[in-house]
From TrEMBL:
<dbReference type="InterPro" id="IPR008949">
    <property type="entry name" value="Isoprenoid_synthase_dom_sf"/>
</dbReference>
<dbReference type="GO" id="GO:0008299">
    <property type="term" value="P:isoprenoid biosynthetic process"/>
</dbReference>
<keyword id="KW-0808">Transferase</keyword>
<dbReference type="GO" id="GO:0046872">
    <property type="term" value="F:metal ion binding"/>
</dbReference>
<dbReference type="InterPro" id="IPR033749">
    <property type="entry name" value="Polyprenyl_synt_CS"/>
</dbReference>
<dbReference type="Pfam" id="PF00348">
    <property type="entry name" value="polyprenyl_synt"/>
</dbReference>
<keyword id="KW-0479">Metal-binding</keyword>
<keyword id="KW-0460">Magnesium</keyword>
<comment type="similarity">
    <text>Belongs to the FPP/GGPP synthase family.</text>
</comment>
<dbReference type="InterPro" id="IPR000092">
    <property type="entry name" value="Polyprenyl_synt"/>
</dbReference>
<protein>
    <submittedName>
        <fullName>Geranylgeranyl pyrophosphate synthase</fullName>
    </submittedName>
</protein>
<dbReference type="GO" id="GO:0004659">
    <property type="term" value="F:prenyltransferase activity"/>
</dbReference>
C-alpha cells in the first residue's frame, strides 16, 4: 500500500448503520464496565468509578461486536468479553501513565496525578484482577487465552522499558514490541469473538491477525501524535515518549538516517528532556521524509490486516471491519498532510 493523497473513504451508510445497530450493545457494555466499581469496597469505589467512567473510543469492544457479527452473531458471552478486554485496556492505561509520568488522560487528570504512584499501581492491578474475575463467566479456553494475552501485553511493556534510551534498538525489534504491547489487545477481541461462535480456526486466526495488524498501525499513529498532536485535541499528555526515553519508529528512522548533528541533538534531547531544539526534530522528521516513511509502515500494516479478511464471506460486517482500517488510514494521511507546511 502506498501513501496517496486521497485514501478510499469508508462507506458511511454501512459504517453508521452497523454502529447504530450496535449502539444498544455498546451502551450495555459501558454500563457493565461502570458497574464493576461497585464490586470494590465503598471506601475506594469512587476511584474505580473515575477510571471506568472515562469516555474512550471503545475500539476494542467495537471489534468484539463486529467480529462476532461477522462470524455468526452476537451472544451474551461476547458482551462480557468486550467488558473484560476494555477493563484490561483501562488497567494498562493506568500503568502507562505511571511509567510515562503523564498528567492527563482522556481530557481529565490522570489517576497517578490525582492519587499518586502507589495508589495507581494498586488500582491498575485491581482492574486486571477484576477483569479476569468477569472473564470467569466464559469458557475455560477463552479465559486461558485472555490470561495469556495479558502476559504478552505485559511482556511487551517490559521489553520496551528495558530498551529505553537504547539507540541500538532495531526496527524489527520495535515492531515486535508494538505487536506485543498494543497489537495483542486488538488481536484478542477479534479472534476470541470468532472462537466464541465456534468459527473455524482459519477464520478465527485470520481475524486475530487482522486485529494485531490494525493495533500495530494504531500504535505507530499514536507515536506520531506524541510528536505532532495537540494535547487539547488528543486529550492526553504528549511528549512523554521523549521524557521517558522511548525510541518510537519516527525517532528510530531519524536517528538511523540522520546526520551526526541530528544524532547528537536527538541524544541530548532524550537525555535532558524536551528543549528548545525540539522544534528542530519536528522539522527534520518532516524535511527528511521520516514522517512519510513512518506512516508508510503503518499503512503497510493496514494492508496486511485487510488481506487477512479475505477468508471471511462478504458481508456488511466484513466491510465495516475494512472501514475501521480505512478510517485509521485517513487519520494517518491527515497527519502527514497537516505537517507538510513545516
Amino acid at each position: 500500500m502506498t501513501i496517496i493523497k486521497d485514501q478510499v473513504k469508508p462507506k458511511p451508510d454501512i459504517f453508521q448503520s452497523l454502529t447504530g445497530q450496535l449502539k444498544d450493545y455498546l451502551a450495555w457494555i459501558d454500563r457493565e464496565i461502570l458497574n464493576q466499581a461497585e464490586e470494590f469496597d465503598a471506601g475506594v469505589a469512587s476511584l474505580f468509578r473515575y477510571v471506568l467512567a472515562s469516555e474512550g473510543k471503545r475500539i476494542r469492544p467495537l471489534l468484539v461486536l463486529l467480529s462476532a457479527k461477522g462470524s455468526g452473531g452476537i451472544a451474551e458471552d461476547h458482551l462480557y468479553l468486550a467488558v473484560v478486554i476494555e477493563m484490561i485496556h483501562l488497567a494498562t492505561l493506568v500503568h502507562d501513565d505511571i511509567l510515562d509520568g503523564a498528567s492527563m488522560r482522556r481530557g481529565l487528570p490522570s489517576v497517578t496525578s490525582r492519587w499518586g504512584t502507589e495508589i495507581s499501581v494498586l488500582l491498575g492491578d485491581s482492574l486486571f484482577a477484576q477483569a479476569l474475575k468477569v472473564c470467569c463467566r466464559l469458557h475455560p479456553d477463552i479465559i486461558r487465552s485472555v490470561a495469556s494475552g495479558v502476559c504478552v501485553v505485559c511482556s511487551g511493556e517490559i521489553l520496551q522499558t528495558r530498551r529505553r534510551f537504547d539507540w541500538s534498538l532495531l526496527e524489527e525489534e520495535y515492531l515486535k514490541i508494538i505487536q506485543m504491547k498494543t497489537g495483542e489487545l486488538f488481536r484478542i477481541p477479534c479472534e476470541l469473538a470468532a472462537r466464541l461462535n465456534s468459527a473455524s480456526s482459519a477464520i478465527s486466526e485470520a481475524l486475530g491477525r487482522f486485529g494485531q495488524a490494525l493495533g500495530s498501525s494504531y500504535q505507530i499513529y499514536d507515536d506520531c501524535l506524541d510528536l505532532f498532536g495537540s494535547e487539547e485535541n488528543v486529550g492526553k499528555t504528549l511528549g512523554t515518549d521523549l521524557g521517558g526515553g522511548k525510541l518510537t519508529l519516527p525517532i528510530l528512522y531519524l536517528y538511523q538516517q540522520g546526520s551526526e548533528e541530528i544524532k547528537r541533538t536527538l541524544v541530548e534531547i532524550f537525555e535532558n528532556g524536551v528543549s528548545a531544539d525540539w522544534g528542530k526534530i519536528q522539522f527534520w522528521i518532516v524535511k527528511e521524509g521520516i514522517l512519510k516513511k513512518t506512516l508508510q509502515t503503518a499503512m503497510n500494516f493496514l494492508e496486511k490486516g485487510e488481506n487477512e479478511l479475505a477468508l471471511l464471506p462478504e458481508s456488511d460486517e466484513k466491510e465495516c471491519l475494512r472501514d475501521v482500517g480505512k478510517i485509521l488510514g485517513n487519520h494517518l494521511l491527515e497527519l502527514v498532510n497537516a505537517q507538510s507546511v513545516l
